[in-house]
Design a protein that fits this description.
Distance between the termini: 97 Å
Structural class: alpha+beta
CATH superfamily of the largest domain: Immunoglobulins
Helix content: 25-40%
CATH architecture of the largest domain: Sandwich
Order of helices and strands: HEHEHEEEEEEEEEEEEEEHHHHEEHH
Number of domains: 3
CATH class of the largest domain: Mainly Beta
Largest sheet: 5 strands, mixed
Number of strands: 18
Low-confidence stretches: 313-319, 359-384, 432-439
CATH topology of the largest domain: Immunoglobulin-like
Radius of gyration: 38 Å
Mean pLDDT: 81
Strand order of the largest sheet: 8-16-15-10-11
């Protein structure tokens, strides 16, 4: 079907399909297996309660029928997992797997009466993201973490300390099967509202009956980066951030009654070494270092970071702070791959705030030829004022020169000339005047 003519406003499956399954259930004791082919999640309604098994096949292609027969007949053990959160109601259709922790639905009640705060709960869904059954069963146990703290090390200073999360997975059924072991993160607090849960890692294991294996994932500070409140271009960290790790699609580490022993204790993010953490200083100094703007000034990335933190906070009122505005200024210049002509560092100092130059001691003047390593320190503060005065004087002279032709042409013509001769009038006789009048 074409894309736009196939648009629909109601995800409910046709009522006749539901009645057909209901009639089969009422008239037969046979096992009912419902197979759904479709490109979007249709609401299955009572089919879920009346069917013994449901196969969500989506759009499998021209050989999808043969594959479905192999699965139903048991010639192949299914191991697929839902790539979406499957909705149950119309109002819950807009709550996907990747949703904010603050996205809630109303519980059942009178829609015409105001609901108390406890009436807003997590939206009821049909099946969660990552859900999937098999002809065998798997059990998770022995969840462990190597440490309760993840340490973030600055790229030029100290390497951070990662932690490992491990869990045992066992095939408790009678036939071999494949299972996708999924690790989710549940963040307690963040600069911006966190997701309810987020998939960090998964690993598929194929196990024989009774076989058990340990699956391990490594958690680094990079896994905890998120879009900050300043803009949507930079992923930042929040030191002291608290979070938990859960295993399995059905595990909910925000709900104590649904942890199933598969949630870690509360973990935290800390900064390796001493000092404080500034995301804008980290990003700016790393970028200046990569583009060799620091080496030209014989400044290390570590010194750059210290200068950034000590010079100002991003909210400094005198305009000399680094801040996100400074970063947004230098990034387009240094990351422009279409015009890398060796003048990028010079343009950063001229078009953006020169945060590095005052740290060299006296005021600096950079050679206009583009050689940013040729820095003249002899001018000092006085030379800067002299330059400003000379520039203003030159501007005034230039303005007068441009206005002179206009002055000469317009204004001079409006001023009486004392050297001009007086106007002479020729007397006309009265008869001639009358003749003219008669004519």
């Amino acid at each position: 079907m074409l894309e736009k003519p196939g648009d629909i406003r109601d995800l409910s499956i046709a009522r006749g399909q539901i009645e057909f399954v209901q009639s089969l259930k009422a008239s037969s004791n046979a096992k009912i297996i419902a197979v759904y082919f479709g490109g979007r999640p249709r609401l299955l309604g009572d089919i879920v309660q009346n069917a013994d098994s449901i196969l969500i096949a989506f759009l499998p292609g021209p050989d999808g029928g043969k594959a479905a027969i192999d699965l139903i007949a048991g010639d192949y053990n299914p191991a697929g997992r839902l790539p979406i959160t499957y909705p149950k109601y119309q109002d819950g259709g807009g709550v996907p797997y990747w949703h904010s922790v603050s996205d809630l639905c109303t519980s059942t009640g009178n829609p015409h009466e105001p609901l108390p705060h406890w009436a807003y709960t997590q939206c009821e869904i049909e099946w969660p993201f990552g859900h999937g059954l098999s002809y065998t069963t798997f059990a998770y146990s022995n969840l462990k973490v190597s440490s309760n703290t993840v340490h973030h090390g600055l790229p030029w200073d100290k390497k951070g300390d990662d932690i490992t999360v491990s869990v045992d997975v066992e095939n408790t059924g009678k036939i071999a099967g494949s299972d996708a072991v999924m690790f989710f993160i549940f963040e307690k607090s963040r600069h911006v509202t966190p997701e309810y849960k987020r998939l960090l890692s998964f690993e598929r294991r194929k196990l024989a009956p009774g076989k058990k294996e340990t699956v391990t994932m490594t958690l680094t500070s990079q896994n905890l980066r998120h879009v900050g409140p300043n803009d949507d271009k930079h992923d930042i960290l929040q030191i002291k951030q608290k979070f938990r790790i859960g295993v399995g699609s059905a595990t909910d580490c925000r709900n104590r009654s649904n942890e199933n022993g598969l949630c870690t204790e509360e973990l935290s993010l800390e900064l390796a070494g001493k000092g404080s953490y500034s995301p804008v200083c980290e990003i700016a100094c790393l970028l200046l270092s990569e583009k060799k703007c620091l080496s030209e000034r014989k400044i290390s990335a570590s010194d750059c970071y210290s200068m950034c933190q000590s010079s100002s906070s991003p909210m400094r009122t005198d305009g000399s702070g680094w801040g996100w505005n400074y970063l947004n200024c230098i990034e387009p210049i240094l990351q422009d791959t279409l015009r890398q002509d060796g003048r990028e560092c010079y343009e950063v100092d001229t078009l953006c705030r020169s945060v590095l130059r005052p740290e060299l001691g006296e005021d600096t003047n950079i050679d206009q030829s583009g050689d940013t390593a040729n820095i003249d320190q002899s001018g000092g503060t006085g030379s800067r004022y002299t330059t400003i005065i000379v520039s203003m004087f030159a501007g005034v002279i230039g303005t007068l020169i441009m206005l002179y032709p206009f002055y000469k042409h317009v204004f001079q013509s409006c001023i009486p000339n004392s050297e001009a001769k007086e106007i002479e009038f020729t007397p006309v006789g009265q008869d001639e005047d009358l003749g003219l009048m008669n004519n």
